[in-house]
Inverse folding.
């Protein structure tokens, strides 16, 4: 039996070592924040953090996560207490259908943990691994910029940017 | 012994330097001209130059990441230090805006800057010299009609004595032969065209031919496999590591789309080359493919795909290789990550996961390319139906990647195990881009 360190807590799982992390999270532990999109590492809906860096959980066997820290969407905050990146995505109304947003938030969180002052180019380059087929890219970018600002000023809310009002 | 070697080294440098100074250490400076205006070139000439510039891959080195095309600034790491590609837009102060056609032709054919100083052979004038004057004029017309971009080229980072450009004069005496490539009357027109492009503008040998201690291409091992940016540029002659022999038709599709099953995807430094060749006249790429096809020659006995692995093998232990612990078992990693696209048998399916049994990166003696592919993934080339290969640099540790590579090698190739894989992964990580 393997034990996964998720959001700071140990979680023993029955799944085999080769099982993709996403399946263990959703099917065994009821952590449904990460979404099953393509199952082939093409879309990013399943993004979580492994040792603070974004990974695609649908193609990451749980064996490689042993002794490492996993962070899922649930680890950033919940409905009652959303974290700064989640608040930024809500403030900018970045979701349309919302299916990609959990992965987008985790991808952005991974960027901001390493670089709280990303340039627009850095945000675009970093986020390009995640797909959105509704077309809310401009709002997602605005949300990441707002999140970066929030992380820098420790959670102070700011009014919506030009992009979000358009 | 070491002292003698050191003395010999110093002596060689002194001799080379002296020879350079004595013979032709500095060429005359050519006068600056008024910046050329777009109207002074024929449209047809500019269009021809655009294609030739793509074949010459000018944009690949003379553009930095996120920078304007042809505005330079890209660092070229050589064993001697870092040389920065220059701004070749027609900006008068920071580019080549005041270069006359004569000055441009001299740079391309003799490796001399407008001010008379020698150019480092990181700029492949040893190949460009083989191009015809007509073709070089077309490239000049194309470059001089680009948008001028003001971008200062950073200073080269070359330690003494390599910082002395006069040394290049000595290098040229030893290794540089100026002059256009003349057609070989015994070859077909297509092969002659291929030779002209491969040896000239396309400068394939700059990456695919190994270099000697002085950084010159080793002509006795022409297209025998070289190094570029931490990748191995595989041999394009009889020493090719491809487990399935290439045909000229396959080469043509690979060079124009960047993707050719069963061989694989143009990745790393080869991808921009394929992106460029996808935009030029088909007959030129066909000629290049025909010439390289002729260089590759007939398939040798040891080049054949590994026997197809039964599905069970994906969960069995590899025969040899690096450390295996419970959380870094190559077979487990393969089953949970790679097999989703490449299938448990390693056969892949259609445009997604290519067949690992015929993949050149699994079969080649140099493990670095596979390391880069696993760490960084592969973006689909511009004109290709290939899927994106995600990078696993953040998901896997060095030990895990080494174990996976040992497994891939043992299961999907019939080549001997790689050694020192963890070190290879550690080194590749230094230069790898974020996945």
């Amino acid at each position: 039996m393997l034990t996964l360190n998720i959001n700071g807590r140990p979680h023993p799982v029955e799944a085999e070592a080769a099982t993709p992390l996403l399946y263990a999270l959703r099917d065994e532990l009821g952590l449904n924040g990460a979404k099953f999109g393509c199952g082939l590492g093409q879309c990013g809906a399943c993004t979580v953090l492994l040792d603070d860096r974004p990974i695609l959980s649908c193609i990451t066997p749980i064996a490689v996560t042993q002794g490492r820290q996993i962070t899922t969407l649930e680890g950033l905050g919940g409905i009652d207490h959303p974290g700064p990146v989640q608040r930024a995505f809500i403030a900018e109304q970045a979701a349309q259908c919302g299916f990609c947003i959990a992965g987008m938030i985790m991808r952005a969180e991974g960027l901001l943990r390493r670089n709280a002052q990303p340039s627009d180019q850095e945000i675009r380059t970093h986020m390009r691994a995640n797909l959105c087929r509704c077309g809310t890219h401009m709002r997602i970018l605005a949300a990441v910029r707002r999140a970066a600002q929030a992380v820098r000023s420790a959670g102070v809310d700011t009014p919506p940017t030009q992009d979000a009002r358009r | 012994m070491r002292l003698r070697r050191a003395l010999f080294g110093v002596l060689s440098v002194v001799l080379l330097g002296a020879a350079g100074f004595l013979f032709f250490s500095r060429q005359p400076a050519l006068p600056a001209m008024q910046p050329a205006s777009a109207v002074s070139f024929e449209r047809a000439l500019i269009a021809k130059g655009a294609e030739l510039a793509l074949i010459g891959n000018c944009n690949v080195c003379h553009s930095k990441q996120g920078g304007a095309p042809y505005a330079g600034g890209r660092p070229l790491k050589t064993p001697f230090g870092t040389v920065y590609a220059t701004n070749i837009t027609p900006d008068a102060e920071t580019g080549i805006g005041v270069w006359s056609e004569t000055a441009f032709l001299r740079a391309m054919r003799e490796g001399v800057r407008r001010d008379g100083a020698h150019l480092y052979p990181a700029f492949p004038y040893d190949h460009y010299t083989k191009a015809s004057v007509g073709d070089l004029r077309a490239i000049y017309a194309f470059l001089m009609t680009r948008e001028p971009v003001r971008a200062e080229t950073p200073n080269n980072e070359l330690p003494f004595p390599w910082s002395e450009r006069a040394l290049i004069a000595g290098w040229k005496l030893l290794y540089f032969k100026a002059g256009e490539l003349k057609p070989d009357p015994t070859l077909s027109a297509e092969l002659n065209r291929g030779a002209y492009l491969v040896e000239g503008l396309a400068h394939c040998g700059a990456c695919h031919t190994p270099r000697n201690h002085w950084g010159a291409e080793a002509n006795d091992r022409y297209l025998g496999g070289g190094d570029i940016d931490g990748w191995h540029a595989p041999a394009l002659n009889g020493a090719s590591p491809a487990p399935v022999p290439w045909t000229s038709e396959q080469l043509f599709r690979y060079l124009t789309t960047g993707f050719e099953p069963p061989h694989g995807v143009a990745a790393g430094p080869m991808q921009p080359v394929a992106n460029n060749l996808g935009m030029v006249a088909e007959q030129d790429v066909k000629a290049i493919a025909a010439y390289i096809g002729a260089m590759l020659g007939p398939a040798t006995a040891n080049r054949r795909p590994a026997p197809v692995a039964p599905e069970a093998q994906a969960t069995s232990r590899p025969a040899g290789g690096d450390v295996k612990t419970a959380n870094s078992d190559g077979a487990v990693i393969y089953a949970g990550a790679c097999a989703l696209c490449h299938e448990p048998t390693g056969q892949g399916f259609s445009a997604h996961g290519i067949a690992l049994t015929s993949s050149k990166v699994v079969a080649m003696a140099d493990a670095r390319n596979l390391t880069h592919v696993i760490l960084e993934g592969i973006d689909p080339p511009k004109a290709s139906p290939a899927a994106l290969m995600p990078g696993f640099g953040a998901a896997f540790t060095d030990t895990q990647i080494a174990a996976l590579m040992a497994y891939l090698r043992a299961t999907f190739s019939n080549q001997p195990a790689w050694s020192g894989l963890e070190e290879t992964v550690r080194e590749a990580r230094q230069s790898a881009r974020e996945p």
Notes: Residues 155-166 of chain A have pLDDT under 50 and may be disordered.
